[in-house]
Amino acid sequence: MCEQITDKNVSSLVEKHDTFIFDCDGVLWNWPHVIPGAVDLLNKLTALGKQIFFVTNNSTKTQDDYAKRFADIGFNAAKKADQVPSDLQAIKTDEVQLDSDITCVISALDLHMSYLKVLKAATHLKRKEVLFLGTNDDASLPTNDEVVMPGAGAVLAAVTAASGRLPTILGKPHTPMWKVIQDEFNLNPTKTVMVGDRLETDIAFGNNQGLTTILVLTGATNESHVNELKEQKTDKSNIPNFYISGVGKLAQLINDSK
Amino acid sequence: MCEQITDKNVSSLVEKHDTFIFDCDGVLWNWPHVIPGAVDLLNKLTALGKQIFFVTNNSTKTQDDYAKRFADIGFNAAKKADQVPSDLQAIKTDEVQLDSDITCVISALDLHMSYLKVLKAATHLKRKEVLFLGTNDDASLPTNDEVVMPGAGAVLAAVTAASGRLPTILGKPHTPMWKVIQDEFNLNPTKTVMVGDRLETDIAFGNNQGLTTILVLTGATNESHVNELKEQKTDKSNIPNFYISGVGKLAQLINDSK
To answer: What is the CATH number of the domain that holds A187?
Structure first.
């Protein structure tokens, strides 16, 4: 049901409820323009003894800012919460330089990622004809220490969320990276071996393209993972055709087989 | 199938394939440590007339860097591609200051988001006992101009991807924001109205908590959306109980109903 409010149903609506929760942006104002009648409604509901709350996801103003804003438009709203920091003013959107000649946005690992870069990428992607590519969607980089290094996938997630568009992802395990070398060198997938250490990128990449896949245990995957894999019944895409302790062992076996 | 490579099957494996694709990190090296036998294998396969490709998602080195690296370890790899920029050295992970007293990571809209902040958040979140909160998951902020302003949801997407953890999201349409005011003010959901302009946050928020929901058409949603909603059969979570042109009209109807 989605019923229009009319003079027929408004009284019972008001009588049946004691609390009214309002979103602010787009409901009470499109700042600096206050929606006509907004203050009337708030004061009216207050006069009728209703409780009023304002629930906004806009965390760029402090409680004091909101209290002042309501006072300015003629409604006395009490505040009750800790303050949240405000720095939305730091971005002057009318000063953002955008180039209408852009035909492609490529999201990659970027140690200098910033809000302004994500804003520019998402804005260019508003035009449907702009191509959206991601170098890869690795969530993090392999490191040997205690630090989680965000990967290209973390940057890409931000651009994807802000733009509402889905990228074509070039890197493993996705198809484009295979197509480039297949076309360039006329490769036959059934005669090609993919050797890798990571199930969800390397092995999935090879399996997705119909290559023969070899897992080595010198990197991201160890022997106990392999044992788990052997018992796995459901998702076959990450299961290698072969595994071996490392490339050194493979070299030795090839040498010995002559 | 996931077969171990042995002296029994290695010959047919090599004979049946003409191309070998290698991932690098964790397969040929865990830099600066070269995997024993890696160069042997590459040279052996080359001697056997096999084509070799290196396919890595690690875009932080140039083609020249890789060519030099292969030459240094004793394999002559040709390069064939444009260069990609390299700036991974910009982050010295051993200089990142992490505080083991941190018990909660809160991801919010941050106009100063950076790689280092995402890295720190994801690293803290490696400890399972650290709470992961998001203020909200709004993908973008409402703006009147041509620019897409990324919302807290874009920042949160980066932290979620890098950490591999799912946050508890505080803002609309999620439950925590309701629980706070319900508990503080002892609200009765069946006697509470939520007024909002956005279906996926405001209206879903109210519906999720069992409130009566009123959609106004002064913000993110217009009359044609409402007509689409009325015909929508599947997802009911975003359909308001009532709609009205704006709060001014609601004030007027309430006034007139006295």
So the answer is: 3.40.50.1000
**Residue A20 half-sphere exposure toward CB, CA atoms < 13 A:** 26
Single residue among A87, A113, A129 that ends a domain in this structure = A87
The ipTM of this complex is 0.74
Flag whether pLDDT at A242 surpasses 60. yes
For residues B176, B181, B184, B190, the Cα torsion angle rounded to the nearest 10 degrees is -110
Same domain, A219 and A193: yes
- Same-domain status, B35 and B50: yes
**Mapping DSSP to helix (H, G, I), strand (E, B) and coil, where does residue A216 land?**
strand
Structural domain that includes position A159: 96-169
At residue B95 the predicted structure's pLDDT band, cuts being 50, 70 and 90, is low
B32 plus B58 within the same structural domain: yes
Does the pLDDT value for residue B92 go beyond 80?
A: no
Q: B93 lies in a domain?
A: no
pLDDT in tens, B101-128: 899 999 999 999 999 999 999 999 999 9
Chain A, 97-156: which have a CB under 8 Å from a chain B CB?
98, 108-115, 118-119, 122-123, 125-126, 135-136, 138-156
- Helix axes B115-124 and B152-163, enclosed angle (nearest 10): 50
How far, in Å, CA of B141 to CA of A7, rounded? 34
Residue pair B109/A60 in contact by the 8 Å Cβ criterion? yes
| Integer Cα distance of A192 and A206 in angstroms | 9
Tell whether residue B172 is among the known ligand binding residues. yes
Q: Is B145 a catalytic residue?
A: no
CB-based contact, B12 to chain A, within 8 Å: no
> Taking 80 as the threshold, does the pLDDT of residue B199 lie above it?
yes
pLDDT tier, B59 (very low <50, low <70, confident <90, very high otherwise)? low
Q: Does residue B214 surpass a pLDDT of 90?
A: yes
| DSSP category for residue B199 | I
How many domains is chain A partitioned into structurally? 3
Q: Are residues A72 and A102 in the same domain?
A: no
pLDDT at A87 over 50: no
* B159:A159 CB<8 A: no
Say if residue A79 carries a ligand binding annotation. Answer: no
From B213's Cα to the closest Cα of chain A, the distance in A is 9
- One DSSP character per residue, B45-57 reads HHHTT-EEEE--S
